[in-house]
Automatic annotation (TrEMBL):
The lineage of its organism: Bacteria, Bacillati, Actinomycetota, Actinomycetes, Kitasatosporales. This is Short-chain dehydrogenase. SUPFAM superfamilies: NAD(P)-binding Rossmann-fold domains. InterPro entries: NAD(P)-bd_dom_sf, SDR_fam. Coiled coil: none annotated. Gene3D superfamilies: NAD(P)-binding Rossmann-like Domain.
Amino acid sequence: MAGKVALVAGATRGAGRAMAVELGAAGATVYVTGRTTRARRSEVGRPETIEETAELVTAAGGTGIAVPTDHLEREQVKALVERIDREQGRLDVLVNDVWGGDHLIEFDTKVWEVDLDKGLRMLRLSVETHAITSHYALPLLIRRPGGLVVEVTDGTAEFNKTYRDNLFFDLAKNAPIRMAFGLAKELAEYGGTAVSVTPGFLRSEEMLDHFGVTEATWRDAIAKSPHFAIAESPRFLGRGVASLAADPEKGRWSGKSVSSGELAKVYDFDDADGSRPDCFAYFADVVFGGKVASAEEYR
């Protein structure tokens, strides 16, 4: 990825941060965006910042550039893309990872009973942000053939056939899959690729805090939640996206929905601990299929 330029929209923490860092480790210049900076926190209320992410990208061997951006604000996104064009003259990878809606979810609540403002905010964060960013960024990306758009979501197309227990959340997590499908059609004549990717059971900073563990002690949480045994670090998806971005035959994935575990099988990489978790196979076989097996058999 040396000489290549990536934009990871929504890179403050979790999978977004990991994808940015792994793209940097592969040699890319990575613009990282988000709303939480050292001077200001977003509505999510987490302490991680885009400046930290940019520093991690640079420490990994790339060039990290933090640009505070609210991807619902068109002028901010337009200015961001104009800056990338002015400073780099190219864009090779766009990762649409903006979300920040976990605190809005009311699971097992009917659509007529949910807080409508929360539901609509989820859709704005997960769908409108991605559409706005693609609108402004893709004219720069298609200048050269081989560009890649990565739509990040939660769940593969197959997994999301199961209802996600909140109408707005269900829509929010299915929309990026369809966006990748549509963008693949629109980018084809320019030699571009669009793919929807998902982590498995992600050990994000927020999830670790939820269970009261750290990345070093995450297995302690299995006693509270047995299926957490299949959990993966954000780096796993990060390595998958970096491998995908560097693949000269990436077009074979265009329009598809793929998980970190599936990418690992094709590109032969492991998670940070040396294991190779296949979360969706585990859920299909064990959680939903009734197979008697341990999570370790799927690592």
